[in-house]
Amino acid sequence: MTLLRAGSATDTGLVRAVNQDLALQTTSLFAVADGMGGHVAGEVAARTAIETLATVFRTQPNPDGLVGAVEAANREVWQQGFDNADLRGMGTTVTAVALVEEDGHDILALVNVGDSRTYRFHDGHLDLLTLDHSLAEEMVRNGEITAEEAAVHPHRHILTRALGVAEDIKVDLWRVQPIKGDRFLLCSDGLTNELDDTVITDMLATIRHPQDAANQLVEAARNHGGNDNITVVVIDVVMGDEVDEEQSAGLVVPSEEVLEAEAAAEARAHRQAEAHAEAEAQAAAGPTGPGQEPLLATGESLGQPDALVAPVGAPVLSRRAERRIKRRNRRIARGRRLVTLRTFLFLILAAAIIGAGYFAVRWYDTNSYYVGVDQGHVVIYQGRIGGFLWFHPKAVDHTGVTVFQVPATYIPALQAGVEETSVANAQAYVRNLEQQQREIQATAANPAVTSPLVPGTPPSTTTTMAGVG
């Protein structure tokens, strides 16, 4: 028998005007959704996804049913955006954990779409179970950038998967063995963008009750900056299986799709490690052989200019042979000087080519601009979308315009980046978007959209006890 105890909390943060996150906490199903879209659309997407997930999962409470419930939620969000122009372009992430029975045993089924995350706190260690479906994280998995670079990448908030973006969605699935004493954390990126793993680990290790842990995690993220909505669900396994350390490696079983993605990432990392080790070995080995020296050297110490130094016991050379050897030595010396000159000229030419290439790449990068979105604000960047070689885009104009001040239909394009040839053209583009939004609001017959969401809904303070025989 497995017994769970849970708590949840959510907060709008210090920057956003509306909370587009939503948590779900029932007797056997727990989830976090992080909506995206216009002033209302993100709330609608998150609410629609959570309600559909809960309704459909009840009809088939097993791992496949949980995947099917997420797929149904995706179709519902997509259909609402397709039918309603005011909601077009909306979407949401979702990560969910369900206590189910499979083959006569209790297991936790875990699903994920987007960059909301699920962690497991086991034996004092915090492990990230889910994979982020964001542009920056996929670049990390492909070996294109490091995890440190991904943390500050200008496109780190662009998702590669989200509910409502397309009619069909790929859902990651894991099966997790519920172990007594384990603690699970579901959260939106508003938490992980503000708190690092060390802080989260310390709080999960020291705060006993899951509701208190959820409340204090949200409060800590808000105090650290609160740049986004923050939502947390903490789940404790009060009763469950007991295993030793040797058995703990098999507690988390990913689906075949997740295994394939992880295997591909591991193979890329292995190839990079081998290449790095080979380069270090070659550098440590040094030159492959000794330098070539002249066959004979001159011996000014003997008092005879250009006299030959012969080894002890060597036969005495004739004057004719000595002159022949001298001429050979002079040719070798001239050849060395010629090689040195050619090497010098080659280095100058190579430096010129590298310098020209550097300035050409820099010109190509810095003569491009685009309009993008960062933390819900419209920003003008200098550089190429996604960066080019070692040049990364930099913000040149924080326009002060939020995504709520532009038509919702343009938000997906802005999230991907809209290229312009100059800062002036980019600024004109942003002003045009603002003007279009003002015209839409001025001419709409009913500009206020009724939403089932209630902004500022206080966090749940109830404790859920879930048991599955």
What is the element layout, followed by pairings?
Blueprint: E1 2-11, E2 21-25, E3 29-36, H1 41-59, H2 63-83, E4 91-102, E5 105-113, E6 117-122, E7 125-128, H3 135-141, H4 147-151, E8 172-176, E9 183-187, H5 189-192, H6 197-206, H7 210-223, E10 230-239, E11 252-254, H8 256-285, H9 319-366, E12 369-374, E13 377-382, E14 394-402, H10 411-416, E15 418-420, H11 423-443, E16 464-468
Q: How is this structure best described in words?
A:
The protein is α+β, with helices and mostly antiparallel strands and 469 residues long. The chain folds into 3 domains: 2-271, Phosphatase 2c, domain 1, CATH 3.60.40; 297-363; 369-443, no CATH class. 39% of the residues lie in helices and 23% in strands. It contains 11 helices and 16 strands. The longest helix has 48 residues, at 319-366. It is globular.
Order of helices and strands: EEEHHEEEEHHEEHHHEEHHEEEHEHE
- CATH overall fold name of the largest domain: Phosphatase 2c, domain 1
- Give helix % range: 25-40%
Strand content: 15-25%
Radius of gyration from CA coordinates: 32 Å
Low-confidence stretches: 245-250, 288-317, 449-466
- CATH class call of the largest domain: Alpha Beta
Overall morphology? globular
Distance between the termini: 5 Å
The number of distinct β-strands equals 16
Assign the CATH superfamily of the largest domain.
Answer: PPM-type phosphatase domain
Strand order of the largest sheet: 7-6-9-10-1-16
Task: Indicate the CATH architecture of the largest domain.
Answer: 4-Layer Sandwich
Please tell me the total number of domains: 3
